[in-house]
Specification:
globular; single chain; alpha/beta; disordered N terminus; 5-stranded parallel sheet; about 30% helix; Dihydrodipicolinate Reductase, domain 2; 6-stranded mixed sheet; Rossmann fold
């Protein structure tokens, strides 16, 4: 038995609301995607405030067919936005998010700066939007790899109670940024250029994302460990991760092994996931149907397939999860947080 669901991206419309929205880091890969997602989902932007560093001030960005000039951080503060969606790096977020919050602006931050800060919500709307309140003026957007995994884990945890997760990721170069994409394309074209990685990425796989820590794991791997527990609201879930960069564009992929306290039926798992928000089941191996980055590209959903019982251990499931890291893994999740706040009257 399999479920293969065709999914149409919802367009979120909130009537009778006007929002002055700042996008901080508007000229970067994620910032550009945030502008695209805000437009596609019809978020009620009364006034767009694209923000970037001084070197980008005056540059033009496009939103809903119109061009807008990038402004400085101080100019954006003076304009008093209702919401500021940040994708400008951790140090910038640490410095500026409190300043925006101090003027009553709600900050949704895409960096790692605030994720594990006590009292700062770390939110994936399908999983734990209920933790948000009107008093939360800084809200953290989780790591891209964590987001797509917990969207799948949540309904399974509710039903079967997760004991342990073993995850290996296969992450797109877009997660590093434009410099990494340029490196890969230059290598494919035989052109020497600036290097984002210590090694060639084209026709290669790098088991190294972010810096190595004293325990031998990378910071990216430990983000998945700690963030999963915080988002799921359960410190008893044991998580171990290996994160790998591969030469793809379109999304991150994950091989996930999940041990439950309770037994499960595989068909029931497929049915449960197919009815879970934000999840699309693509699991028809007889016809070679399974999730791939090339199909997840520019979609907001999280795709899951290769769903099967782990025959080496009781109550354990294997699956394969794919999602567009620039959309659900970053921009879309941030916009969905803003949508939830607005819908619940928390802005």
């Amino acid at each position: 038995m399999f479920l293969f669901l065709f999914y149409i991206r919802p367009v979120f419309v909130i009537k009778n609301h006007k929002m002055k929205v700042a996008v901080v880091g508007a000229t970067g890969l994620v910032g550009t995607k945030m502008l695209q997602v805000l437009a596609e989902r019809n978020f009620p932007v009364t006034e767009l405030i694209p923000v970037a560093s001084e070197k980008s001030v005056g540059k033009m960005v496009s939103f809903k067919g119109k061009d807008f000039a990038v402004v400085s951080f101080q100019t954006a503060l003076d304009m008093k936005p209702n919401v500021a969606i940040f994708s400008a790096g951790g140090s910038t977020s640490k410095e500026l998010a409190p300043k925006f919050a101090a003027i009553g602006c709600t900050v949704i931050d895409n960096s790692s700066a605030w994720r594990m800060e006590p009292g700062v919500p770390l939110v994936v709307p399908e999983v734990n939007a209920h933790v948000l309140t009107a008093n939360d003026k800084i809200i953290a957007n989780p790591n891209c790899s964590t987001i797509q995994m917990v969207v799948v884990l949540k309904p399974l945890h509710d039903k079967y109670k997760i004991k342990r997760v073993v995850v290996s990721t296969y992450q797109s170069v877009t997660g590093t940024g434009k410099k990494a994409v340029d490196q890969m394309m230059n290598e494919r074209a035989g052109i020497k250029g600036e290097m984002a990685y210590a090694y060639q990425i084209d026709m290669n796989a790098l088991p190294h994302i972010d810096v190595f820590l004293d325990n031998g794991y990378t910071k990216e791997e430990m983000k998945m460990v700690h963030e999963t527990k915080k988002i799921m609201g359960d410190d008893s879930i044991r998580v171990t991760a290996t994160t790998v960069r591969i030469p793809t564009i379109g999304g991150h992929s994950e091989s996930v092994n999940i041990e439950f306290e309770k037994n499960f039926d595989v068909d029931e798992v497929r049915a449960l996931l197919s009815n879970s928000p934000g999840v699309v089941v693509v699991d028809d191996v007889k016809n070679l149907k399974y999730p791939m980055p090339i199909h997840a590209h520019d979609k907001d959903d999280t795709f899951v397939g290769r769903i099967r019982r782990d025959e080496s251990q009781a109550n354990t499931l294997n699956c394969w999860i794919v999602s567009d890291n620039l959309r659900k893994g970053a921009a879309t999740n941030a916009v969905q947080i803003a949508e939830y706040l607005l819908e619940k009257g928390l802005l």
